Amino acid sequence: MLGDRSLPAGYDHPHASEEARRIAEEGTILRVQVGSGVHGTSIGGQDDRDEMGICLEPPQYVTGVARVGDGIPFEQYQRHTVWDRPGGLANRSGAGDLDVVVYSARKWARLALAGNPTVLLLLFVPDAEVVHRDEAGAELVDNAHRFVSRLAADRFLGYLTGQRAAMTGEVGAHTNRPELVALHGYDTKYAMHALRLGVQGVELLSTGRITLPVPEPDRSYLRAVRRGEVPLAEVVAAVDAAEQRLIGLRESSTVPDEPDRAWVDAWLHRSYLASWARQPTLRR
Q1: Which of 1, 9, 176, 189 is nearest to 83 (CA)?
Q2: Measured between alpha carbons, how far is 50 from 256 in angstroms, rounded to an integer?
Q3: pLDDT of amino acid 143
Q4: What is the DSSP pairing of strand 49-55 with strand 98-104?
Q5: Is 84 exposed, middle or buried (0-12, 13-18, 19+ CB in 10 A)?
Q6: Cis omega (within 30 of 0) on the bond before 58?
Q7: Are 228 and 201 in contact (CB under 8 A)?
Q8: Which one, of 119, 100, 102, lies nearest residue 110 by Cα?
């Protein structure tokens, strides 16, 4: 299913070993497209394709001491086709590249319970963008609302603030896209992501859902920002407004203080046990 060989000879990445690939492929319960393609904010074939998944690893990697790669526990598998070209790990993905990350269900759950916007997105992808989903994956998607909490509000705010700072060059100047700054005066891709996080964070905290692709008129506005058609001052004002809405929702009595950890624990427990029961050859 992942279909890609591991890293070319001469390159090394702790999460890209052949063993990690096998675990991810055989245990995948959910895999979807994420990134600009699913948000509806891609521009004229400029983007790579991002996919994210969740897998249930074999028991020896959970209750035992089995390791992958350079003696590390299995937490995720990563595959980026850009690594195949000269330059390897130093290359930046671009149009036509495929970037895949498949998390162990336990790691994904830790990140999702903490409100990580990137991993939560996986729960709201429309059917047309689903690469694989089995019964355990479907149950998780059906219970997406259990991950909504003030912790998610904090994380959306944190991510938004980080993207805004990078957009204006306040921090992380080395990560800026100099070609966009030279053309538009600011990093329009960071700006678009900052606004998108505001839009989606407000929807999640208000409704318990994230609509994908981003509904109109926000989608068109985000695309205009990415194309550099919106002045920086207007973008900053829009980001500030989204931030204030998120802060207000975080303090709302309708947003739970904590996610439903008990349900997530129960889902992990029964999903792992069911997976292992179907793979008796792995119980050694």
Answers
A1: 9
A2: 31
A3: 98
A4: parallel
A5: middle
A6: no
A7: no
A8: 119
Distance CA 118, CA 53 (A): 12
10-residue block means of pLDDT along the chain (284 residues)? 46 76 95 90 75 96 88 87 53 65 97 97 96 97 97 94 80 60 79 93 96 96 94 93 94 94 98 90 45
Structure tokens at 161: 């603030």
| Amino acid at site 2 | L
Side-chain-side CA neighbours of 72 within 13 Å: the count stands at 13
User: What length does the chain have?
Assistant: 284
44, two tokens: 């004229």
Omega prior to 126 cis, within 30 of 0: no
- CA neighbor of 205 nearest in space, from 127, 121, 148, 247: 148
- Cβ atoms 16, 79 nearer than 8 A: yes
| CA dist., res. 37 & res. 130, Å (int) | 12
Determine the distance from the C-alpha atom of residue 170 to the mean position of all C-alpha atoms in its chain, rounded to a whole number: 24
- What is the layout of strands, in order, in the sheet containing 28-34? 76-80, 98-104, 49-55, 28-34, 130-133
Instruction: Mark residue 185 as left, alpha or beta (left: phi above 0; alpha: psi -120 to 50; beta: remaining).
Output: left
Amino acid at 187: D
Place of tokens 């162990």: 104
Note whether 177 and 168 are within 8 A (CB): no
Beta bridge partner(s), residue 28: 55
